[in-house]
Specification:
With about 190 residues, the chain is an alpha/beta fold. The chain has 2 domains: about 70 residues, no CATH class; about 100 residues, 2-Layer Sandwich (Zincin-like). It is about 40% helix and about 25% strand. It has 6 helices and 9 strands, in the order ββββααβαβββαααβ. The protein has a 4-stranded mixed β-sheet, with helices on one face. The protein is elongated and about 60 Å long. The two termini are about 30 Å apart. The model has no long low-confidence stretch (mean pLDDT about 90).
Length: about 190
């Protein structure tokens, strides 16, 4: 059973309106999504305790809200699939030579409209899937996503080895990742 209530709390930073969801969970989970502040808390959590928790995280909440507000929407033209494939295949052509000497076999490229990912890697099956929306992004960001997926053929998780490969092959990948975060997939 979930008990949702809309609450408002005053903080030194300003007023925070949030939705409190009391659930069968052990931990508090505060998130900002689509400019909404959401708090999941254990079933017997009282409103005063929830308000105090939100008040203690007010600076983080306002930073997250400002970051979301400053994000521009990805200029999705809804490019035709064949055009997306041409654009993203060129990104693979640009980045594959970086991993080829490391023994990565050139993967098949598949496209999909995805809501929460720019790409994913199916290393056992030998293909990567790229979000069609990526074709509307600048080339350096396309290259970052493609290399990220290709690096998974070498390191399947996001461990130290994976990031070591990214650091070696694309030293500015962190800046590219940060730039990609200004775009939202819708």
């Amino acid at each position: 059973m979930v008990n949702d209530q809309l609450r408002t709390v005053q903080t030194p930073e300003g007023t925070v309106c949030y939705t409190l969801s009391c659930k069968r969970v052990k931990n508090w989970n505060l998130r900002v999504k689509d400019r909404l502040v959401l708090l999941s808390a254990p079933m017997r959590t009282g409103g005063a305790a929830a308000d105090e928790f939100v008040r203690s995280r007010a600076q983080w909440i306002f930073r997250a809200l400002a970051r979301q507000q400053s994000m521009e929407k990805l200029p999705l033209e809804q490019l035709p699939r064949d055009r997306c494939m041409r654009i993203l295949s060129r990104a693979v052509e640009r980045t594959y030579p970086l991993v080829a000497p490391l023994g990565v076999t050139r993967p098949e490229v598949r496209l999909r409209s995805m809501r929460s990912q720019w790409g994913n890697c199916h290393y056992l099956q030998g293909y990567i899937t790229l979000n069609m929306a990526l074709a509307s992004c600048p080339e350096p960001l396309q290259d970052y996503v493609v290399l990220h997926e290709l690096a998974h053929f070498l390191h399947h998780d996001h461990g130290q080895g994976f990031y070591g490969v990214m650091d070696r092959l694309m030293p500015d990948w962190k800046q590219r990742r940060k730039a990609l975060k200004q775009y939202r997939i819708e």
